[in-house]
Amino acid sequence: MELMGSGFVLRPWHLEDALSIQHHADNPNVSAFLADRFPYPYTLDDAMSWVNLMQNQDPLVNFVIAVDGKAVGGIALEMRQDVHQKTPLLGYWLGEVYWGKGIMPEAVKLITNYAFAHLDIICIQAFIFSGNPASMRVLEKAGYEKQGVIKHSIVKRGKIWNEHVYAMLNPQAVTLN
After folding, report:
1. Residue 172 pLDDT level (bands cut at 50, 70, 90)
2. How confident is residue 82, by pLDDT bands cut at 50, 70 and 90?
3. Do 115 and 88 form a contact (C-beta atoms < 8 A)?
4. How far out from the chain centre does Cα 111 lie?
5. Burial level of 176, CB count in 10 A (0-12/13-18/19+)?
6. pLDDT (0 to 100) of residue 173
């Protein structure tokens, strides 16, 4: 399964992606607005553990972003449980040298369309740190709508941030009120 973008591909993770991922992920600017489970510094062992974990996904919800065959980032849906079972969380990151090239808004559109076509979901949500307006623009360009702000809800590197909640509803899902 590959999702073709303009100058990039979303595809499953391969074992040989580890070295390239480590190179792009080991950057404080990349990890600055990601959950702490995305480590910094990002070692080759971290990359190898991640790539191994991503083997044999079913369903496929976590994709590498590849440019010219090289892994330069990732985009994923985190499937949740309980009352959120049909509302996954969207997360993504990209090597800094690829920022501002239009890759991420298109990647978000691709994974969103894929998810609505292949997964039994009603909505996709994304939570963005208040200090990351570039990521908010990514979501807005991809058609996501801001649904609100959760004040003082996260701490990252000793700073308290608000979280901006974005979502896109599945146009094919039946909603009940």
Report:
1. confident
2. very high
3. yes
4. 9
5. exposed
6. 80
**Range list of H helices, 12-141:** 18-25, 28-31, 44-53, 103-118, 133-141
Residue 149, SS3 per DSSP: strand
Q: In angstroms, rounded to a whole number, what is the distance separating the alpha carbons of residues 121 and 74? A: 21
Mean pLDDT, the chain, whole residue set: 96
CA angle 18, 22, 25 (to 5 degrees): 130
Contacts of 75 (CB under 8 A, 6+ apart): 10, 62, 63, 65, 90, 91, 92, 104, 107, 108, 111
User: What would the two tokens of residue 141 be?
Assistant: 């360009």
Q: Do residues 95 and 30 make contact, with C-beta atoms less than 8 angstroms apart?
A: yes
- Strand 70-78's sheet: what is its strand order? 3-4, 9-11, 62-67, 70-78, 89-94, 123-129, 159-169, 145-156
**The two structure tokens encoding residue 30:** 């990349």
Residue 175: is its pLDDT beyond 80? no
Distance CA 103, CA 37 (A): 24
- Look-up: residue for tokens 């991420």? 104
Q: Which two tokens stand for residue 47?
A: 């990359």
Per the CB < 8 A criterion, the answer to whether 111 and 119 are in contact is no
Other C-beta atoms closer than 10 Å to the C-beta of 131 total: 13
